[in-house]
Design a protein that fits this description.
eight-stranded mixed sheet, alpha/beta
């Protein structure tokens, strides 16, 4: 007689955010107060899944106050548990303000085989139609699924599953705030199980070195009529810069000398401010076009949005990567033409 397999075990880690918020003042403003145990108590349906759920309250902060160092420490703890095969899946709940950024940063730092899912809520638990319990239930379901093992970091929201590299928060208040403009969801959760439709096109490789070096990376968005006067001094204060350009990677002609000079000193990455689509490599050739800027030493971000490009560049600089390594990493990460930049 075959011995039955033990039920899957999932660890739910709480970082805070709207999903943990309760009104703490007489005016009713919400602040993060609930623990991971409190969150699970609001999801009685978990008992019917057969999944064993453990909890860890890592911190209790709004998403806007999370730090790079905290996410690095969380990734280290999850890597250690992954190496020991302690759990079959991880779920991290946090504030949605920075969820898309944290998800991508974790995809660069975690790189374990145990599924890692991020989720949160747009409505606090004391409001009508609170979405946190449903998002937690779906996330635990996805994290426990053998189909997600080795897929990297995922985001689950409103019963949809997203690749961390492609997901974007595109609405400030809607419970359907998360989308992936270029690919759509990788899958859905229906009838209590994952229905996987696609897999990520690119999974980040493990870092070759520890992140021991300080690095300050800025993001500067282009806008009509900006002559670059404010950009120039900012470039003197950073170790790397991501420029969020118009369209497929365009900036005003007046910026060209400033960016060319900066690209000789620090890595300057060219992304698109549009929120969807990719930077190009040679469709346009005017001063300030993508080809012009790449020929002058900028590095194309491809499909990576400016915020994710910033995190990738920060991780590379903090791990001591040289320019050759940075260019080689950005090409597949942004699914751009190899060797450009």
């Amino acid at each position: 007689m075959t011995k039955p397999s033990p039920p899957p075990t999932v660890l739910v880690v709480s970082l805070g955010g709207t999903i943990t918020m309760t009104p703490t003042t007489t005016e009713g403003e919400a602040r993060p107060t609930l623990s991971a145990e409190d969150l699970l108590a609001a999801v009685p349906q978990l008992a019917g899944t057969g999944i064993v759920v453990k909890t860890l309250s890592f911190t209790t902060k709004p998403g806007a106050s999370l730090t790079f160092d905290e996410i690095e420490e969380l990734a280290a703890q999850l890597r250690a548990m992954d190496s020991q095969n302690t759990f079959d899946g991880f779920v991290v709940s946090q504030g949605t303000d920075t969820l898309e950024e944290t998800a991508y940063l974790l995809s660069l730092l975690y790189t374990g085989e145990t599924p890692l899912v991020l989720t949160g809520a747009m409505r606090a638990p004391y409001l009508a139609g609170a979405d946190g319990p449903a998002n937690l239930l779906a996330s635990v379901t996805v994290a426990a699924s053998p189909q997600t093992r080795g897929l990297g970091v995922l985001v689950v929201f409103s019963d949809q599953v997203f690749d961390a590299a492609r997901v974007r928060k595109t609405h400030s208040t809607s419970t359907n705030a998360f989308t992936a403009p270029d690919t759509g969801p990788m899958g859905t959760v229906a009838e209590g199980r994952l229905r996987l439709l696609a897999t990520p096109a690119h999974k980040p490789l493990p870092l070759a070195a520890a992140m021991t070096r300080p690095a300050r990376v800025g993001v500067y968005a282009v806008s009509l009529g900006d002559d670059g006067t404010l950009l120039a001094p900012l470039l003197e204060q950073v170790d790397g810069m991501v420029v969020a350009g118009f369209g497929v990677g365009h900036v005003p002609a007046a910026w060209v000398p400033v960016l060319q000079e900066a690209a000789q000193r620090i890595p300057v990455v060219l992304a698109s401010r549009t929120g969807g689509g990719t930077t190009l490599t040679h469709a346009y050739g005017f001063a300030g076009s993508e080809k012009d800027l790449l020929d002058r030493g900028l590095i194309g971000a491809g499909y990576l949005d400016p915020y994710k490009a910033r995190h990738l560049l920060t991780v590379l600089l903090r791990s001591g990567a040289d320019r050759e390594k940075i260019v080689a990493t950005f090409a597949p990460a942004g699914t751009t033409e190899e060797g450009r930049g």
